[in-house]
Amino acid sequence: MSKETLSVTDDRNGKTYSLPIEKGTVRAMDLRQIKTGPDDFGIMSYDPAFMNTASCRSAVTFIDGDRGILRYRGYPIEELAEHCTFLEVAYLLLHGELPSPAELKDWVYEITHHTMLHENVKKFIDGFHYDAHPMGMLVSTLAALSTFYPESKNVLDARVRRQQILRLIGKVPTIAAYAYRHSLGLPYVYPDNELSYTENFMNMLWKKTELKYLSNRTLARALDVLFILHADHEQNCSANTMRCVGSSQADPYLAAAAAASALAGPLHGGANEEVLKMLAEIGTKENIPGYIKQVKEGKFKLMGFGHRVYKNYDPRAKILKRTAEEVFQVTGRNPKLDIAIELERIALEDEYFVKRKLYPNVDFYSGIIYQAMGFRPEMFTVMFAIPRMAGWLAQWEELLQDPEQKISRPRQVFTGKDVRHLEQARPATAAD
Ligand code: CMC
Predict the structure, then answer these.
(1) What distance in Å separates the CA atoms of residue 252 and residue 246, rounded to the nearest whole number?
(2) CB of 118 closer than 6 angstroms to any ligand 1 atom
(3) Could you tell which of 240, 300, 358 is best to mutate to test the pocket of ligand 1, judged by most ligand atoms within 8 Å of the CB?
(4) Half-sphere CA count of 124, side-chain side, radius 13 A
(5) H-helix or E-strand spanning residue 145
(6) Which of 307, 314, 350, 402 does the annotation list as catalytic?
(7) Is the pTM of this model over 0.70?
(8) What pLDDT shows up at residue 430?
(9) 166-206, pLDDT tens digit by residue?
(10) Cβ pair 270, 321 in contact under 8 A
(11) Which of 88, 260, 423, 424 measures 20 to 30 Å from 146, CA to CA?
(12) What is the separation, in whole angstroms, between the first and last Cα of the chain?
């Protein structure tokens, strides 16, 4: 049988070391023993942007980027999107198993009864300009919730953590809807406990003067599917931020605000907003080849394309393409879809994209659906953040229960000046 070790020879002194291999990894700390003498700090690994570093063990989400596979707790994303509700999937992510009917009933009840926001939050949101970006409003309001729930800082108490999990999953759609209504100058709508998670969100977004908001079933289901697809994606930039901030034992509102900030960037969740701007800029199918030419010249990136982990078609984008058609049956076809499909066709035949294994990612089609539902592009990343809260919290729970984890604190390779003294830069003068 082959040995599960890696032999390393230090050519500086000819010494050899045997490093254990576990689940295809060697421990970076095992490199520290490789030294040239007692004063040597030992070898470190250097990995900007974590291109090849596992920062944790995780049992939540599995991705095989080469084969285009995504599973939550072992279940293929396609099956979950077809047969589950978002709240069932959120339960699965957090608890490791799907809920029984009784567990689901309790879970839905608890989340539903944590959707209200303190009245002062309305005043807080009122302070934003009418044209404030909704991601800025979401991030700030999440952080502000920390001041309403000071007990949340007891992050090592499982009961306290559970309470904040219910609050965060329950309240994030309410914050998102308030931010949306604020930007339109509309009065805020309170949650309706008789509605499902997505129906209630639609109620808080779109209710006008009617006594009871009745949502379109196809659109409510499409939102559920979108939420399931966005719920978690293992150690992406925002999940890593949630873990990094959470590792200092900051409360989950502050950690979630930091995670949402990471999501806002155009290379991460902000890409869906950028895709719509890009499709608007391209304007017609005839302009696509010229646009692709500029991408290949390195002038800008094709937004909604490429992924650090997927080197195959993003399975979420496949499901979204189908969801888009269902939504358009209700809303009418978004003409941007035809440009997107043609853009995808041309890109996938182009040597530049083929060679680099660049395929459409989840952000390529989600914005087109959200726009057809009536959202402006600024809201798209907020729509991503709502379901991702479940994933962030599952990652945070796992972090806090992992005995191997400590405060997240990388090392550096120092490239600055060696010690120097002020008197060399500023020689003493007579006045001194
Ligand atoms: N358009 C054109 N070229 C690209 C693109 C793109 N969208 N993405 C990567 N490349 C090129 C890149 O220039 C590089 O080329 P070369 O080898 O000649 O230097 C090569 O492909 C490898 O790319 P990379 O930048 O090393 O890959 P990365 O893993 O660091 O970046 C990414 C991943 C998602 C940030 C990047 O693909 C990108 O910026 N895509 C556009 C933004 C986007 O759609 N983001 C959403 C990601 S999925 C959902 C989410 O995370 O929120």
Answers:
(1) 7
(2) no
(3) 358
(4) 20
(5) helix 134-148
(6) 307
(7) yes
(8) 58
(9) 999 999 999 999 999 999 999 999 999 999 999 999 999 99
(10) no
(11) 88
(12) 75
Residues 338 and 365: beta-carbon distance below 8 Å: no
Q: Which of 268, 338, 350, 418 is flagged as catalytic? A: 268
Give the pLDDT confidence of 57-92 residue by residue, as tens digits: 999 999 999 999 999 999 999 999 999 999 999 999
> Rounded distance, CA 218 to CA 323, Å?
10
The pLDDT confidence band at residue 429, using thresholds 50, 70 and 90, is low
Rg (CA), the chain: 25
Closest atom of ligand 1 to 270 CA is 52
Query: How far, in Å, from the CA of 302 to the mean position of ligand 1?
Result: 8
Verify whether residue 421 is a known catalytic residue: no
In the residue annotation, 133 being an active-site residue is answered as no
Question: Is residue 20 helix, strand or coil?
Answer: strand
363 is catalytic: yes
- Would the CB of 363 count as within 6 Å of ligand 1? yes
Report the percent of the chain where pLDDT is more than 90.
92
User: What's the mean pLDDT when you consider all of the chain?
Assistant: 95
Q: Is 85 in the pocket of ligand 1 (CB under 6 A)?
A: no
Q: Percentage of the chain surpassing pLDDT 70?
A: 99
